[in-house]
Design goal:
This protein is an alpha/beta fold. The protein has 8 helices and 6 strands; from the N terminus they run E-E-H-E-E-H-E-H-E-H-H-H-H-H.
């Protein structure tokens, strides 16, 4: 598994599922064209880009390039790297028929093709660092212990924390974990959560 510094931006959940089997980093979805109307998600991408950088990895079809070009204009270019998958024709396993252009998307790529695309884009691969070297990531148990999930008024507390940290209000507990871990030091964040 590749430990990558930058967060990776993909179009949808199937792309994220495929990529999460190859890389150890934050993977964010644009929800396809949903990113065009989602100012909170765009703000989140800017924050994470400022903190650790972004790699945009969209499909090689027309829709993928529309999304990529939108992000190219909306995000600071010094914080963004672009990874491209090749034009390979075929059909993803979960689909009945190929897409409109007949090309495989990120989800249909073999792991070695995705790794090559990320390396070619200049992904910062943290080979000397392992999970043991890094502080432990936030867990669901941390959220529960701080009263942010599974308890009385946990949704209100979560909303208060998200507002205080200027993060999108619609993040679920599961979506919060990688975002908070990408942006904040674990110990100071746990202290912040306890002070709500």
């Amino acid at each position: 598994m590749l430990n990558i510094k930058e967060a990776i931006v993909v179009e949808g959940r199937y792309d994220k599922n495929t990529l999460s089997q190859l890389v150890d980093t934050v993977i964010l979805e644009t929800a396809g064209f949903g990113i065009f109307k989602d100012k909170e998600k765009l703000s989140l991408l800017r924050k994470i880009g400022e903190k650790r950088g972004l790699i945009i990895l969209t499909d090689s079809d027309g829709a993928g390039f529309v999304i990529r070009n939108y992000l190219k204009g909306a995000l600071p270019q010094d914080q963004v790297k672009h990874a491209y998958v090749p034009d390979l024709f075929g059909k993803e396993k979960r689909k009945r028929k190929p897409g409109k252009e007949g090309k495989l998307g990120v989800e249909g790529m073999r792991p070695e093709v995705l790794e090559k695309a990320l390396r070619r884009a200049g992904a910062t691969i943290l080979e000397g660092e392992t999970r043991r070297d890094a502080p432990p990531p936030l867990t669901k148990a941390d959220l529960f212990a701080c009263g942010l999930s599974g308890g009385e008024r946990s949704k209100e507390k979560r909303q208060a924390l998200l507002k205080k940290l200027d993060l999108p209000q619609h993040l679920t507990p599961n979506a919060m974990l990688p975002v908070l871990s990408a942006l904040y030091d674990r110990e100071s964040l746990l202290e912040e959560m306890k002070n709500l």
